[in-house]
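Budget justification note: compute hours in this period were largely spent on complex prediction jobs such as the one shown. Inputs:
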Amino acid sequence: MLARVGMPQGLLHYNYGILWERFFQELGLEVIKSGETTRATLDCGSALDEICLPAKVYYGHAAKLNNQVDYLFAPRVISVNKGQYTCPKIIGMPDMLRNNISGMPPVIDVNVNLRQSSRNLYEAVAAIGKIVGKGKVASLYAWYKAWQHRNQPISKYSGRVDGPQVALIGHPYLIYDRQISMNVIEKLRHMGINVVTPEMVNASEVAQASKTLGKKIFWSSSHHLAGAAIALLTAKRPVDGVIFMTCFACGPDALIGELISQRAQSINIPCMQLSIDEHTAEAGFITRLEAFTDMLTRRWPL
Amino acid sequence: MNAYLGIDVGSVSTNVIVMDHLGVVSDALYLRTQGRPINAVQEGLKEIQQRNPELKVLGVGTTGSGRHLTGVIVGADSIKNEITAHAVAAMHLVPEVQTVLEIGGQDSKIIIIRNGVVTDFAMNTVCAAGTGSFLDQQAARLSIPIEQFGVLALQSTAQVRIAGRCAVFAESDMIHKQQTGHPISDILNGLCQALVRNYLNNVGKGKQLNGPILFQGGVAANEGMKRAFEEALGCPIIIPEHYNVMGAVGAALLARETISVKDKTAFKGFDIVNSIYSPRSFECTGCANMCEVIELKKDEAVIARWGDRCGKWSGVTHQAC
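Corresponding output:
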């Protein structure tokens, strides 16, 4: 029987899940994923107190895998870019799991820290391979094979199409999680809106746009969100509106949310901030979405 | 008489208005929802029919937080959110309006309009601190009828500063001021100023508030609030004639707009006031999503279900109702 490695579908899984899954498959392991977020995930995750919703969700995913796997893959991703960090809660996640879930299988919590040099990645890959009993060469080869299948930008932003276009700015683990985002992307499309997400803006455009921010953003994910938002706002054909989706108590978002809304205001593009938490009643959420899209569609076409 | 109906089912009040095809409001009704939106709508329609026996309904629009439930029951032609409804109504009554301040029972909003188009809006977040419910509660604590609140606040002669950030802080500040001997009218006026300050700093943050400014929603009845807004903004505030039913006026206007491109109304007739509607909710156990499904029965027959994500329950409705 193949050794089973469990992969919680939360937080950075939305960025690197495909790559990680392929890597373990190339190494000859069976990958068990926790599946989409459900109410049960949320119920389980609320065992944690005083932490943001995505962290609770990740915990719920990990707890679900607890008895089903031989290894739990929860790498400590400290940095993915030179000079930048991920979020402190992401960095602390393996400890949070260990302290709250009893009887856990071995946790693969290898450090990934590319803040100073991207060479650390290869050390991390080898270390992961070692935990599951694979040699250095086999691990690196598996990583090389998997790298060809990494997440590619879904589609490039190509300017104005039919109907209003809205930039939905938020962390991937928020806006693509259909449970906690209350299926916002589908809802907007249903209302006749073309949704553009930060993943549709490539890294070089982000880097270019974030130069105009006037300050360096230390968190890589937030850096991408802010850069993408500005790139979409200042494109030759800018988006018609920005929805900034954030979860309650997110520190980095509080900062970049303000940067984005100030920029949008200065060029008269409407910007709405949507805060989400453990609410399951959708009424207030839908009212805001509807009002925002009404505002855009009622003046479309000008 | 041919007319459009507008129904606004809010957290605190349920309003029904009758509007002719020229957009003139001929009858308006303001009821308390009292936690039973269906009863409130039935009662409202009953009274409207009694007062206007010749009424022929051309179209119905619903708005407010109970708009979907009500829309199913009455057969609405347009179901729209309250921000759009309030903006449409404000522009209808005062075409040159640029800013709408709206404070209702549970929420407060600001709508910025330029050249007849909504360009920006904001709503309060989860907390209902600066809204009508809080004024209601404080009036009850001081045993003052809410209708007298504004009149008393206007009698104030001295400044009393009340903390406005949070309803709990405001209440303790008010109690301390009252115990040190400040007259009630000064405290009430201080509370109005605190709410206005809080509203402008939170909901109105960073917005350009140009005149003409309309103040609508139930709280606009409070003259103390009107004066506090005028003092803070330094310009006159217009309170439209139907300030407390503006959402319903907007709903009727939106229904008229829908009917202009649709031939026939979906209105189910005034007979619905005689039916018994019983909603219930249950948790679906089909999968881990555990959706809370709402089922609406009309005289024992299920007429609608909603709230599920997969369509298992909502798909089997829309039978003949």
